[in-house]
Amino acid sequence: MATVEARQLVKAFEEVRAVDGIDLMAREGEFLVLLGPSGCGKTTLMRMIAGLEQPTAGDIVIDGRAVTDLPPRVRNVAMVFQSYALYPHLTVERNISFPLRAVGMSKEDIRKKVDWAADMFGIRRFLNRKPRQLSGGERQRVALARAVVREPAVFLLDEPLSNLDAKLRNSARDELKSFQRSLGTTTIYVTHDQAEAMGLGDRIAVLNHGRVAQIGTPQDIYLRPSDTFVATFIGSPPMNLIEDGDTWFGFRPEALVPAAQVPEAAVRVPLRIKRVEYLGAEQLIYGTVEGRGGDAAAIARIPANLDIGVGAGEVCDFALSRHDVQRFDRNSGRRIAEATS
Amino acid sequence: MTTRSGGARRIAGRAGHAAILVFFVTFLAFPFYWMLITTFKTTQDLHDINNNPYLFHDAPTLDHLRVLFSDTMFLQWISNTMLVGLAVVIITLVLAVPAGYALARMKGPWAQTLGIGIFLTYLVPPTILFIPFSRIIADLGLQDSLWSLVLVYPSFTVPFCTWLLMGFFMAIPRDLEDAAMVDGLSRFGAFFKVVMPISLAGMLTAVIFAFTLVMQEFVYGVTFITSSASYTIGVGVPTFLVRGDVYFWGSMMGACLIASVPIAIIYNMFVDRFVAGFTMGAVK
Hints:
In chain A, 25% of the residues lie in helices and 33% in strands.
């Protein structure tokens, strides 16, 4: 267990600054998710924490000790790669014991540890197989067992679920969370999948263009996005943003409900409906806000059994409650603190 | 109707498949058959143009092999070839493995250009190089010594094997080295414990290619070596078994067979599984 800090971290590849001054701290035992679109620098940041990439400037501090100039092998971190990176020439048993052999642990200790890790992930019966004889899900478990086996100070997970099919992904996510809970090891997890981030993270750091756009609990990120980037990156469909003078007027699709449903409407939003998308449990109403010019597009997400009784091309009255409204500065995109009401 | 024509198509497909296989097997096995039958045919049988060349007409004979082993220094040439081959293979690996690895992992536009540049040096023919090389060999006082060949042969085995190994190393996912380094190894450790074992196939291929190139080399061998006791197979066989316009076909074919069969066997034993994606299961 340890804390991990990035201090003023910069990584430049020729002209591109992949990581552009990041300050970040993972607390002891925390599950911290680095979330962002591809090219936002999240993988580079993780590789610098692992020691696989040398920062251009700044420091990496693990458990209070600056490790910036130390090679990966002495940082006591374990990493699970997106590709799993299992050693193809070694059996599962040798793959898992690889980090233990590297430090010259005794044979009995290795056996005990391997059995313990293999049991944790239910892969004991595969110990004598080679990676190529395993399915994707089994390979992922081997990769996790190899990371767990030496009880590192920090786990670094680089999109470990992205190579699994959708069905497996949900159960794997669940397992990942519960094993991290039981071990209590500080974990940094990279993903571009917000559902994964929301489900797994104690806190989420949203990255954009090599900077931290926002760091906070999933609730913070979703309910109080710090700028328009986070507001539109998180949530599916994303937050509606309507121009309103010097500000953006923002609200989540699920905050928009037919006016008939609320007793006293706070904010009225007349929506000219373009299209209704039926999604089983819910439906998405695509439309434009009347009286705001042509491009004031908005999406409402309402339960599928709610009949708005209005077809495409017509106007339906929607309403918002006041505390669901967020405002952002038009120029900077920054969130404007709620006015005291 | 549809099932019957489907069946017919399937049978035709299989026949076509078999025909292609038979063609290639024949094509590849024929040289060996030709060497084998010629080795044991009497000279009279060989030279009679009315005989079917693919069959024995006289009883098989061991005469040609007797000539090869007792009238020439064939065994000496084999041991010379082995000695030079071994030395050249070691030198080649020592130079080409790190070079190929560096080229495979180097970033930027230079890597590719440099790789091609190195390969191009392999294409410079010995007929151009043997003159400057003979100056160097003379200056070093290595004329008529097997060491001259040990010195000169890497000039084509190193670029060739560097190129070959570069391809193998490129096929190894970088993640594996990164994983090994995070798992407690240094960069060298990762290279020796992960990259080398995985690219064993590639290195064996390089060894076989380097050795074969040495075995078949003629120009340098005939230029730098004068005494027959120091000949390699590639020089000794044609020099001794072609006397003016008399060709000792049987003995020559016997020599070729003996030299090529072990290589073919080794090649078949290993190369097969090299092709079948040795890194499968490492990533994805």
